[in-house]
């Protein structure tokens, strides 16, 4: 660009050294993940010595000594992530419609601050507050407390992509529908919802991943005798990193990458459709 | 900071009449399960501790007092300053600051580089930067520990290349914690800086170059002031979660490099079991974070008024 203007003899936008830094950055981000992926295929009891390629640790995850623990933890993790993502997406969609299409009102800033609160607060503080709350009202910690805590902190993650999407949709669509005698509910379901869908899907996927990922809050509110995948892995890792944990980690890593890729393409499709 | 609402192409009020009904679930859920709990936590920080976890409903300032003063084992000696907890807080602040600087030094060139690519390749670069963030934080931290441990792949590689002759003892050092924090929150630095460089008008840099400023002068005097809001946002987004981090210091730092997160965790999960003290430490952490966020909000509103 700058070169066309003529007087400058170099491209002012380019800085030598920025490309190498970017590459270093990517190496730091990916090296640990790639190393764990590679070593999860290691056919050796020891995590230090390379003993050739094998799938034995993947077999071990599903049928080894700790398989039962991982299975029940996976079930708890996936069922809670699904329910928490559905609940928080519904709550966040309603909130986004009110915030973006509800005109201005007193307490709008306060409401936005309230919705963002779970992101703003340090996770460990949320964890402590939730633990103390359930203990103070005498509620036994377990599956239900994990679910409630997850719904709360998933709301802002679902809200952000949904409201961003809604802001990009012209208000004329639902107004046209109402001019043609659609009720407000009909305008919402038949006109606004399909337009918002990419944002809602992105919000749901984000909330799902965030719930699946959480360790700190879950660790505080889970109570004894129930584990999610992260708390089960943390318990195992405390005694040292074992190869089966690397296989399990690789599987979870792939799930995350698949979800992020889907959400990336969904939002891309949404942009094109506009 | 108007990012949250408003703004659309046309301001539509279609759903204004049912607004309160639509907001009710958010108010109720976050209000009951987060705002009320923080209130109860504040109350708990002023109660007396029960020895096996929990509290006795008796007003006490012991939790905050214990933070600053040492009154001996039975609480009857003349108070002296207790440095243990102050040290942990100071260490956490320093660790979080170092991690922030670390992220800025690597994150700024990266964000700038990505923002100046062609639009098509830009989104691929951005995707590459954000993917690791969506991988489970616990798994990422464990992976980092696996990579840098004494006889791990990094040391093997460095020994093999002959850069070092003895394995580096990285695990359980401050450096390992900083590396873990850097690794955890780097995308938070890159994304806001990227957004502000993308909006930057490069004609300004060209004008500076026409007036015989070299690249680095242009960077310092023209570009950096213009993208300052993005840099500040990135620094805060890295600093705040680093301050209360638990996994990186716990898994990579070991007992010698205790940070606030581990201190709080120990009050509820470990044998120390002092709930009021844990609640007080959480309140202090929360207050520190709120101060940083308020500073940020003021900066942002000033930047918005500045008519960029």
Molecular structure report:
Chain A has 274 residues and is mainly alpha-helical. Chain A has helices spanning 2-5, 18-39, 56-63, 67-101, 108-120, 123-136, 143-167, 172-179, 184-213, 216-221, 229-237, 243-273. In chain B, the strands form two sheets. A two-stranded antiparallel sheet of chain B has the order 1-2. A two-stranded antiparallel ribbon of chain B has the order 3-4. The longest helix of chain B is centred in the first third of the chain and has 33 residues, at 83-115. Residues 1-10 of chain B have low confidence and may be disordered. The interface between A and B is large, with 108 and 101 residues.
Structural category of chain A: mainly alpha
Order of helices and strands of chain B: HEEHEEHHHHHHHHHHH
Radius of gyration of chain A equals: 24 Å
Instruction: Write the H/E string of chain A, N to C.
Output: HHHHHHHHHHHH
What share of the residues of chain A does DSSP label as strand, in percent? under 5%
Layout of strands and helices, then pairs:
The complex is a heterodimer of chains A (274) and B (308).
Chain A: H1 2-5, H2 18-39, H3 56-63, H4 67-101, H5 108-120, H6 123-136, H7 143-167, H8 172-179, H9 184-213, H10 216-221, H11 229-237, H12 243-273
Helix pairs in contact in A: 2-12, 3-4, 3-12, 4-7, 4-9, 4-11, 5-7, 7-9, 8-9, 9-12
Chain B: H1 19-44, E1 47-49, E2 55-59, H2 62-68, E3 69-70, E4 80-81, H3 83-115, H4 119-134, H5 137-148, H6 153-161, H7 174-199, H8 203-210, H9 215-226, H10 228-243, H11 247-253, H12 260-268, H13 275-305
Antiparallel strand pairs in B: 1-2, 3-4
């Amino acid at each position: 660009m700058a070169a066309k203007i003529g007087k400058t003899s170099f491209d002012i936008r380019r800085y030598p050294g920025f490309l190498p830094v970017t590459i270093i950055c990517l190496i730091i981000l990916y090296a640990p993940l790639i190393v764990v992926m590679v070593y999860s295929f290691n056919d050796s009891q020891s995590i230090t010595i390379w003993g050739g390629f094998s799938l034995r640790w993947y077999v071990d995850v599903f049928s080894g000594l700790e398989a039962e623990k991982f299975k029940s933890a996976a079930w708890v993790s996936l069922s809670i992530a699904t329910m928490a993502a559905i609940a928080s997406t519904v709550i966040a969609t309603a909130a986004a419609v009110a915030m973006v299409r509800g005109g201005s009102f007193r307490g709008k800033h306060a409401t936005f601050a309230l919705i963002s609160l779970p992101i703003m607060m340090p996770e460990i503080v949320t964890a402590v507050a939730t633990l103390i709350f359930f203990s103070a009202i005498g509620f036994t910690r377990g599956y239900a407390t994990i679910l409630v805590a997850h719904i709360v902190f998933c709301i802002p993650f679902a809200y952000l992509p949904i409201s961003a999407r809604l802001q990009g949709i012209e208000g004329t669509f639902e107004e046209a529908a109402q001019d043609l005698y659609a009720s407000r509910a009909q305008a919402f379901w038949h006109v606004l919802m399909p337009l918002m869908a990419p944002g809602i899907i992105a919000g749901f996927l984000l909330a799902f991943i965030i719930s699946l990922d959480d360790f700190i809050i879950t660790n505080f509110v889970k109570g004894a005798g129930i584990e999610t995948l992260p708390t089960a892995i943390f318990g195992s890792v405390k005694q040292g990193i074992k190869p089966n944990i690397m296989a399990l980690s690789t599987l979870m890593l792939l799930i995350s990458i698949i979800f992020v890729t889907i959400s990336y393409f969904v939002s891309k499709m949404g942009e094109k459709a506009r | 900071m108007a990012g949250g609402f408003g703004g659309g192409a046309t301001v539509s009020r279609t759903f204004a009449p049912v607004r309160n009904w639509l907001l009710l679930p958010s108010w109720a859920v976050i209000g009951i399960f987060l705002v009320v709990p923080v209130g109860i936590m504040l109350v708990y920080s002023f109660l007396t501790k029960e020895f096996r976890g929990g509290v006795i409903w008796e007003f006490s300032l012991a939790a905050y007092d214990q933070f600053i003063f040492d009154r001996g084992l039975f609480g009857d000696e003349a108070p002296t300053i207790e440095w243990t907890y102050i040290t942990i807080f100071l260490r956490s602040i320093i660790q979080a600051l170092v991690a922030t600087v670390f992220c800025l030094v690597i994150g700024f060139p990266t964000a700038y580089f990505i923002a100046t690519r062609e639009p098509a390749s830009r989104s691929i670069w951005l995707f590459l930067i954000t993917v690791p963030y969506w991988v489970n934080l616990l798994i990422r931290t464990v992976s980092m520990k696996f990579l840098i441990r004494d006889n791990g792949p990094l040391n093997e590689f460095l020994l093999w290349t002959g850069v070092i002759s003895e394995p580096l003892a990285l695990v359980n050092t401050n450096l390992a914690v900083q590396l873990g924090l850097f690794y955890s929150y780097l995308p938070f630095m890159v994304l806001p800086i990227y957004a502000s460089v993308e909006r930057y008008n490069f004609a300004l840099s060209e004008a500076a170059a026409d007036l015989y400023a070299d690249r680095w002068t242009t960077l310092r005097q023209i570009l950096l002031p213009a993208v300052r809001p993005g840099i500040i946002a990135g620094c805060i987004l890295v600093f705040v979660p680093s301050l209360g981090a638990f996994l990186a210091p716990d898994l990579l730092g070991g007992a010698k490099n205790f940070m606030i997160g581990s201190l709080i965790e120990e009050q509820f999960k470990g044998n120390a079991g002092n709930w009021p003290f844990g609640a007080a430490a959480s309140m202090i952490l929360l207050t520190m974070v709120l101060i940083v966020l308020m500073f940020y909000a003021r900066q942002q509103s000033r930047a918005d008024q500045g008519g960029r």
